[in-house]
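Lab notebook page, bench 4
Experiment: in silico fold of construct C2
Operator: M.H.
Input chain length: 505 residues
Purpose: comparison with the prior construct
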Amino acid sequence: MQMSNIPEVKLGLIAVSRDCFIRTLSERRRAAIIKECEALKLDVAEIKVTVENEIDCLKAVEEAKAAGCNSLVVFLGNFGPETPETLIAKYFDGPCMFVAAAEESGNDLVDGRGDAYCGMLNCSYNLGLRKLKGFIPEYPVGTAKDLAAMISEYVPVARALLGLANLKIISFGPRPQDFFACNAPIKGLYDLGVEIEENSELDLLVAYRKHAGDERIPTVVADMQKELGQGNTYPDLLERMAQFELTLLDWARDHKGARKYVCFADKCWPAFPEEFGFEPCYVNSRLTSRGIPVACEVDIFGALSEYIGACVSGDAVTLLDINNSVPEDLYKEDIAPKFPQYKLTDTFMGFHCGNTPFCKLTTSTECNLKLGKINYQIIQHRLLEPVGSEPDFTRGTLEGDITAGPITFFRLQTLPDTTLQAYVAQGEVLPVGTRSFGGIGIFAINEMGRFYRHVLIAKRYPHHGAVAFGHYGKALFDVFTMLGVKTINYNQPAGVLYPTENPFA
């Protein structure tokens, strides 16, 4: 499915020049960056106004806006003018990246020396003085080829920042009873510039009933049938689920308001299945695969984390419980012989009832992997339906083992005092059957046992984590930094102790 709910980044490149330096040096270097960006198939508009003063700054910003740019790269082709170059970030309504030119040749260090290495220090100093945010890469100085690569890595960061600046989270219902971990102080959202619309479960039910007989339902049913294939185990459910999908999509369209993008957090149990007649998991997964995350259990910051992951990866994401340990016998039989680099405590199972997109479930049956299919929620069936009965309204989950490959597990979370913190950990899903139920996979993250104790537990993180399917730790760390998140945790390598870790253990 097409990711239709995330921004498209349109970059502009503005070169700056201090008036006592050679202007053409900065312009020549700007043109070289554009050429290298073209080689990487990066669409970057070359802003022709070179900024030497404040009037140039205003002209360059206007040129960028006229070109449709929503994000900028400010390039110090030489030392650069401190005031106008930093004012670009003030007058342009969008994220700005600041980089500087490296000197090209030891044989050209007179007229060919720009001193941008020095100027970058003053640029950063002035951004701080003005309390302006600018994205500065790990090492922001380079040749045209180097800088083009940095720009490429900046795109997902810019996409996430643009998305959050225009995001509304729509919730339905309060968190389930005794799920305090899904508590979401609104102030943390407002601090990030994110809007929220809170509704009751009844509001959603009323809207759902109004969509009965919607003429679009057969088309959605056909699309579901095509997607599921042999996994369409309960075809009688599809019409109801199609009705619900249209309800959510119409609600998103009608309630965006001044925002461009939306995601959802809904209360999916215990009342939902009995009143709606099915579990919402499969529908939630379909919207998530389009870049419209629908977080379970009214996990508002889970939805926010998923949306950030969708923007950064440009791909479907999921939200999982950091759920259960891997039994030692399963580890010895199926994991240790093939993946000796992982200890038992490096592994765990990530699970949820069935919200992981179908495209992220395995297509392999090796090592007893389960293919994706519509199923019922075992725990809810046990709780809500008569003992020994066939599943009825607890049907609608999307089950299967999650596809093997690299992943990033992460979460942005507000604490009870409304301060923000985040964690990021890269690892992989192993191609090993889980022997269990739900949308589930066996995850391996280096030093997970220590990370579990000294980050997830010590820092009071809840059980839900967002999952992006690839290694996106660098971009996510940069996004959280740009958002002003002061505490960003990650899994420390062996031998590097956490502050709370007992050195004698």
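Observations: Residues 167-490 form one domain. The longest strand covers residues 405-414.
Next step: discuss at group meeting.
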